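Suppose a colleague, Dr. K., hands you the sequence of a protein chain of 455 amino acids and asks what its three-dimensional shape might be. Before reaching for any lab equipment, you can write down a predicted structure in token form. Begin with the sequence itself:
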Amino acid sequence: MNSGTENDTPVSLRSRLVVIAVLVMAVSLGLVGVALNAAFYKSSEAGLQTRMESLVYLVLAATEATDEGALIVEDDPGDPRLGQPGSGIYAHVHGELDEWSSPSSLGMGLPELPPYQAGESIFLLPSARINFYTFRYGVSWEMPDGRMLPITVTILVDPNEIQQEIAAFRAGLWRSLGAAGVILVLAQLIMLTLGLKPLRRLTGDIAGIESGNLHSLEGNYPKELEGLTRNLNRLLNTEKANQTRYQNALDSLAHSLKTPLSVIRSSLPATTEEKSAVVNDAVNEMQHLIATRLQRAAASTRRSIASAVEVGPQVDRLIKSLQRVYSQHLINMHAIIDSDVAFYGEQRDLLELLGNLLDNACKYGDGQVRLSVQAVDDTDPRAGISLQIEDNGKGIASGQRGQLLQRGVRGDERVDGHGLGLAIVLEIVSAYNGEITIDDSELGGARIRVTLKTD
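The predicted structure, expressed as tokens, is then:
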């Protein structure tokens, strides 16, 4: 029969929204972090420039020049780090005849810098040639004799001064952004949980309809779901009405044909006994065909939302009936059924299918019949059921199996001994998009495997 394709497990709407929200927040917080880090870096450099400019003024305030142009600078110009060797902050005063370096630069090998133009200042970032933040300021010192003595004050700061400050800021920034991200994710989860609650309630109500506990979607739903619930209720009502009309039409057809056939039978002339017998047989055959075709038509249409039919009680019912019918043959019938397995379809379809297959097994077996039923998917009870019927008879020849499983081929026309029952089975299997196979049983006879898909 038709084979279905396996679909990948769908991702829930909640999971999708959570993943999208986490990705958006991660990208957003990352961009915010990069922007804040860049802003802090610029701010730190601007603050460092201001501090270096203040150091220039402190050094100038501590500087004196002799009449000969020699420089005299106090050992402590105002910042104790200038007096600590290797402190990371260094000062240099370059005069026309003399120069001075702060005690902090002892043994550092600071780069030599040329004098700078008086009245101008410059702030330089670390580079390959000078790996320091550099601030240079040029002044003209007026001597007592009116001469102008050019002096250049240079402040050098180790880049680690800023890097440590930025590293501390980054650590605090990412911790804060991480905590904010966790809080936002939790807030999103709460919002999604509350926002999707009506959908979960809708899913539960639909499951109640599938199980037969509810007949329609009831209760108040958000405005966004009102159209969906209204259309689903209309669909349910339409399906119920169509099912009722269809069943009534079948009953009416059977009733309408029964009366004319009875009139025909009662009006047969009794003059020719042989002709009367022939017509009687034809009428009986017509009644049998009408009943069979009505059953097959009913089996070929099923509701899209059906209640669960417990398989166990139906099997017990059939076994008891068949054991009474074949009581003289002492048939041993054994059923293996998974607990709580259910058939989400029409009860009459299940009884018709199992009844025909078990009847054939009893009829063509040699006193032993075995039936096993299990769910197609343990995680989804509506996926369908799988069953197999085995007997210990002569089996079915391999050359006849393909003919029996051809759609539209009647078993009683192509295989001797298999009446109309297998044709009805094929119609039911087709109606449920199922599969049927025939092979050899471990018991020695035939084994018929059937899968009915109800999802």
